[in-house]
Write a structure and sequence with these properties.
It contains one helix and 13 strands. The chain is mainly β. Strands 5, 6, 7, 8 and 9 form a five-stranded antiparallel beta sheet that branches. A hairpin with a 2-residue loop joins β12 and β13.
Amino acid sequence: MAQTAKPPFYKRNPVCAKVACQLLAAQNGIPHAGGKLRLEVIALAAANDNVERQNYLALYDAIGTALYTSSRIGGLFVPFARGVQPGFTGISVDRAGRVFVAFGTGAHSSFLVVLDPGVRPVRTFGTLPGDGGEPRFFTDTPSSGALDVDGDGINELVSVVNDYDPNYAQGTSTALYYKYEVGDFQAMGCTTLTANIDLTKPPRSAPASKACKMS
């Protein structure tokens, strides 16, 4: 007897039990010590186009068990396929097994989400905006990402901010770096960006500068 095909992961998610859902974005085969993972951005269907959709970030194991589903994140957040700065990818995993997801929220804004699926419940480090709140690592440019700055296999967070003086196009951009230390991400330093700085080849020492304002 032929087996009945299981519905897609997102349709099995509890948030979609009573409301129609739409899959906005997904990434299969995310490597992890516990097996391949799948990440989804789910939108609950709105009554009409004038109603903001309710969106959720969900993480699953290889057989479709929901390991984590966020609270409502609102808006049409869609992960970058490729960030503005070279080397910024939408989803990456570091040696510690933490999953990093860059989200765009507009032409000049973005934020970074960090998930640790190696613990239960899955840890988010306060990086998701939740209901009505602002993401922890929010920036006013479309450049957020995770890079291994010091070469130890553990990703640092990089957020590029702009002072908009006198405007975005002519303003000064600064890269803010955060390093995982003592159980959380701590401000590491920053560097003012110029045309010849490549964030994929950062200095191997902490790019700290007292002249930079840390968020």
